[in-house]
Specification:
Layout: H1 2-30, H2 37-75, H3 83-121, H4 124-130, H5 135-172, H6 178-187, H7 191-217, H8 222-256
Helix pairs in contact: 1-5, 2-3, 2-5, 3-5, 3-6, 3-7, 3-8, 5-6, 5-7, 7-8
């Protein structure tokens, strides 16, 4: 038992070390030429436009179900008119960033791990090195930049659509006037909430994509290894979204509230 724990601890320490080395190489590649702009634009399109549909659907139905459940609860206190305040605060500060992060982790994290893992087991990464091309600069940096900047945009869209979904349910089923709902939405938001909703996605996007790249580049064991890496990337990214969300929330509460 002790030997298994020791082996697990060594493997975990090695993974952390390799992850930190990857991030250091990414930082170094960011501020030195060459920069592969075409690959960066392609990843912006793949991660941003490719994830738009699932993010829109997740945001819409989250706002709708949140309005439905909130209406039942607020009716007990005669506060149905406050439903917009609850939805806006929940979507902007928490549900928008987290749900977008989970959707991106499931779609993008798995795709990156599978793509890079396939390149590793088929020796395409080794071929890039033999040709004098840095795989980190060519493959990892464009993906991390795309995740860093596209996840916040997706989060803003998801949050806005979630509020619209909440309005649809509030107006059509709960019979609350549109003006009452939107006034409540505005009154329920503070500038600190908006900053929290904008800062979180940058951290979450970076975490999701960097973990996917790390897991993909650490793939071994042929096609079965690619499958394991894909699963590990989704699990690690999803857990990291929840954990990082808590840590960032705690930090921002201390700094801003």
């Amino acid at each position: 038992m002790a030997s298994k724990i020791e082996s697990w601890a060594k493997d975990a320490a090695l993974e952390v070390q390799e992850y930190v080395r990857l991030l250091a190489r990414v930082v170094r590649s960011t501020f030195s030429p060459p920069i592969y702009y075409r690959d960066i634009v392609e990843q912006f399109d793949s991660i941003g436009s490719g994830s738009l549909t699932v993010v829109l659907l997740a945001g819409l139905f989250t706002g709708m179900v949140l309005a439905l459940n909130s209406g039942i609860t607020l009716d007990q206190f005669g506060a149905r008119s406050m439903i917009g305040r609850l939805i806006s605060a929940s979507m902007v500060k928490e549900l928008g960033p987290v749900l977008t992060g989970l959707m991106v982790a499931g779609r993008v994290g798995s795709g990156i791990a599978a793509e890079l893992g396939s390149m590793v087991v088929t020796d395409q990464i080794a071929a890039l090195r033999a040709l004098g091309t840095d795989p980190i600069r060519k493959l990892v940096l464009p993906r991390i930049l795309a995740g860093l900047f596209m996840v916040p945009i997706l989060t803003v869209i998801s949050t806005a659509v979630g509020m619209v979904g909440g309005w649809l349910v509030t107006f059509s089923l709960l019979r609350v006037a549109s003006s009452v709902y939107w006034n409540s939405v505005v009154q329920g938001l503070f500038i600190q909430d908006v900053w929290m909703g904008l800062i979180k996605p940058f951290v979450l996007g970076f975490t999701i994509v960097s973990l996917g790249c790390h897991v993909g580049l650490r793939t071994s064991g042929g096609t079965q290894g690619v499958g394991r890496s894909t699963t590990n990337a989704v699990v690690a990214s999803s857990v990291a979204v929840i954990a990082v969300d808590y840590l960032v929330t705690q930090l921002l509460i201390v700094l801003m509230y």
